[in-house]
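User: Just a sanity check before I run the rest of the batch. Below are the structure tokens for the first item. I only need the designed sequence back.
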């Protein structure tokens, strides 16, 4: 089940994703679209992920938990083209 978090205007979603990946909160399948970070939870509960993000000191505007959508699958398979080249899964 993915969890999405919107970062505040003072923070960079890409920098926040780097932090939560380094801390083991997010895996390689987490991604950024605009100011929203989507973190597939896998073996973690939404409450655990939210607590870990808060403990990492990452400001958020909102958080949600939901089942994966077809859009999630598409973005996972194709990658977000707004990400820097080093964050893309596959190059065309």
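Assistant: Here's the designed sequence for the first item:
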């Amino acid at each position: 089940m993915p969890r999405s978090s919107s970062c505040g205007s003072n923070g960079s979603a890409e920098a926040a994703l780097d932090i939560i990946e380094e801390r083991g909160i997010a895996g390689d399948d987490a991604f950024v679209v605009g100011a929203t970070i989507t973190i597939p939870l896998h073996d973690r509960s939404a409450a655990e992920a939210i607590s870990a993000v808060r403990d990492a000191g990452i400001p958020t505007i909102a958080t949600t938990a939901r089942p994966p959508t077809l859009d999630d699958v598409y973005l996972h398979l194709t990658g977000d083209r707004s990400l820097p080249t080093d964050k893309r899964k596959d190059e065309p």
